[in-house]
């Protein structure tokens, strides 16, 4: 049987097992103090509109490179993953290299290719040849790959901003590298984001609706002078364990993506069928004679 290979499974195992070397600072997104719900109206309309428009403006930039960070925490432990890659926001495809935790059992970085329909992973599961990719259907991931791959697809990171609530506020301006960006914070609603996202890229959010309970999700978004998203942080609560039910332990997850080098050429395509791993059929015990 093919074991679920999403990197979050590794992280949750580390959190539950209390692996050494995973302790760290408390996960506290800058937007975590914002409280509200769909329909809240305590933010200025200009701030709400700026963040909501960032999805279209960033898509208009066609592509970018990205740096990602995902931090998972339970009661007393933290696991942090970092990655880098590039994404084509017109073809809706990108690649990511994720550095796995030292105690994950994964030798070397995890390679990912992300599309709205599938997450392809290489070097993500023991027993799978290193030259083969494992295909995970997005609609089979309970969180729609907002968390599963160890990094939220940057395209989804800004598509989800279409669902911002009316509590968005402009914190002020800050430096991001050499650039000055505007820092906004507020909450968003996955259902609202799903309904406002184009059908061809709605898959991850449709799957995520199976897991997330509709509570407002805190975020921090940083926009440049052109209105493009330059950095986003989103905070999730994710049930650990195979059943992902209400009784399962919950991890706090802070997903962050930084976008830069807009317009870069992205030469990425899904793996061909010959490069995909196919799990062997269960062996059958020969019937005894006599």
Straight-line distance between termini = 32 Å
- Kindly name the structural category: alpha+beta
**What percentage of amino acids are in beta strands?**
25-35%
What about the largest sheet? Answer: 11 strands, antiparallel
CATH C-level label: Mainly Beta
Low-pLDDT segments, ≥5 res: 1-6, 18-25, 30-41
As a whole number of angstroms, the C-alpha radius of gyration is 20 Å
> What would the average pLDDT be, to the nearest integer?
77
Assign an overall shape: globular
Count every helix, treating DSSP H or I runs of 4 or more residues as helices: 5
Task: Name the helicity range.
Answer: 10-25%
Q: Based on the structure given, which CATH architecture is correct?
A: Clam
Could you give the count of β-strands?
Answer: 11
CATH topology: outer membrane lipoprotein receptor (LolB), chain A
User: Which sequence of strands runs across the widest sheet?
Assistant: 6-5-4-3-2-1-11-10-9-8-7
Q: N-to-C SSE series?
A: HHEEEEEEHEEHHEEE
Number of domains: 1
How are the SSEs ordered, and which strands pair?
Elements: H1 7-17, H2 45-60, E1 63-73, E2 78-88, E3 93-99, E4 110-114, E5 118-122, E6 133-137, H3 154-159, E7 169-176, E8 179-188, H4 190-196, H5 203-208, E9 217-223, E10 229-239, E11 250-260
Antiparallel strand pairs: 1-2, 1-11, 2-3, 3-4, 4-5, 5-6, 7-8, 8-9, 9-10, 10-11
């Amino acid at each position: 049987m093919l074991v679920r290979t999403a990197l979050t499974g590794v992280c949750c195992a580390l959190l539950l097992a209390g692996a050494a070397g995973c302790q760290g600072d408390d996960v506290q997104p800058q937007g975590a103090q914002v409280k509200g719900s769909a329909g809240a109206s305590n933010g200025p309309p200009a701030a709400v509109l700026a963040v909501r428009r960032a999805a279209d403006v960033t898509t208009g930039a066609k592509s970018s490179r990205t740096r990602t960070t995902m931090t998972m925490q339970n009661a007393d432990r933290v696991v942090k993953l970092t990655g880098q890659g590039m994404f084509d926001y017109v073809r809706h495809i990108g690649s990511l290299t994720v550095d796995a935790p030292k105690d994950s059992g994964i030798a070397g970085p995890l390679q990912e290719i992300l599309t709205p329909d599938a997450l392809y992973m290489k070097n993500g599961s023991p027993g799978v040849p290193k030259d083969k990719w494992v295909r995970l259907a997005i609609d089979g991931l309970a969180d729609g790959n907002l968390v599963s791959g160890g990094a939220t697809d940057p395209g989804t990171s800004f598509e989800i901003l279409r669902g911002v609530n009316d509590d968005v506020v402009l914190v002020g301006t800050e430096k991001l590298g050499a650039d000055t960006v505007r820092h906004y914070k507020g909450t968003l609603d996955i259902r609202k984001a799903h309904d406002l996202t184009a059908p061809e890229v709605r898959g991850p959010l449709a799957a995520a609706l199976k897991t997330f309970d509709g509570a407002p999700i805190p975020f921090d978004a940083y926009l440049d002078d052109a209105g493009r998203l330059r950095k986003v942080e989103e905070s999730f609560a994710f049930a650990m364990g195979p059943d992902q039910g209400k009784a399962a332990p919950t991890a706090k997850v802070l997903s962050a993506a930084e976008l830069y080098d807009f317009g870069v050429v992205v030469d990425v395509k899904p793996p061909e069928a010959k490069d995909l791993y196919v799990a062997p059929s269960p062996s059958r015990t020969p019937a005894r004679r006599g």
